[in-house]
Write a structure and sequence with these properties.
Length: 186
C-alpha cells in the first residue's frame, strides 16, 4: 500500500490543492447563488472521485484493500453527478448529499489509514483527514437549520483543512517514493 501511495504522491497533492482552492473560493464568495455552490462542489467531488478511483486501480496488484480507494472514488463521483444533474436542488437536499459524502469518504479514509499504519509507524495524516470528514458530516447532520451560507462557510473551512492535511500527506509520501521498499519491523 505504501509503495503505491508513495509512487502516486502527486495525486494526493492535487487532491489537497483542489480542496484548498475550493475552500478559498467559497470563503471569498459566500453570497453567490446556490447554483454556483452546487456546480463548484460537484466539480470538486468528481475530480476527487476520479483521483481516488485511479489510486484504487493502481494499487490493486499490490494492495489487498485497493477497493477502499475505488469505493471512495465511486461515492464521490456519484455525489458529483447527482449535483450536476439536479442543479436546482434545494439547500437541504444538497446538505444531505454533502453529509453522506463526507461521512462515507471519511470512514473509508480512516479505514485506509489503519491499513497504512501497518506499513508506516506513526502515520496519522490520512486518518486525521478522514476523521475531519466524519466530524464535518455529523455536524451538518445535527444542525441542518444553520442555513446554506453557514454550510458554505463550514464547507470552505473543512476543504481548506482537508486540503492542508492532504498536501502534508503528499510530501510525506514523496519522501518514501525514492526509498527502497523495506518491510516495517513488527
Amino acid at each position: 500500500m505504501l509503495e503505491v501511495m508513495a509512487r502516486n504522491w502527486w495525486m494526493w497533492l492535487i487532491r489537497g490543492i483542489a480542496a484548498i482552492i475550493f475552500g478559498v473560493l467559497a470563503f471569498l464568495n459566500p453570497a453567490d447563488a446556490l447554483l454556483a455552490l452546487v456546480l463548484v462542489w460537484a466539480a470538486y467531488a468528481l475530480v476527487d472521485g476520479i483521483f481516488s478511483v485511479i489510486a484504487g486501480f493502481r494499487g490493486r496488484e499490490t494492495n489487498r484493500n485497493w477497493w477502499l480507494a475505488l469505493l471512495e472514488g465511486v461515492v464521490s463521483i456519484i455525489a458529483g453527478i447527482v449535483a450536476f444533474l439536479y442543479p436546482d436542488i434545494t439547500a437541504l437536499v444538497l446538505l444531505y448529499i454533502i453529509v453522506a459524502w463526507a461521512i462515507i469518504t471519511g470512514v473509508l479514509e480512516v479505514w485506509a489509514a489503519i491499513q497504512l499504519r501497518k506499513e508506516i509507524e506513526g502515520e496519522i495524516w490520512l486518518g486525521l483527514s478522514g476523521l475531519a470528514s466524519v466530524i464535518f458530516g455529523i455536524f451538518l447532520f445535527l444542525f441542518p437549520g444553520a442555513g446554506i451560507l453557514a454550510v458554505l462557510t463550514l464547507l470552505a473551512a473543512f476543504s481548506i483543512a482537508f486540503g492542508v492535511l492532504m498536501v502534508i500527506l503528499s510530501f510525506r509520501l514523496r519522501g518514501y517514493a525514492d526509498q527502497p521498499t523495506q518491510p516495517r519491523a513488527a
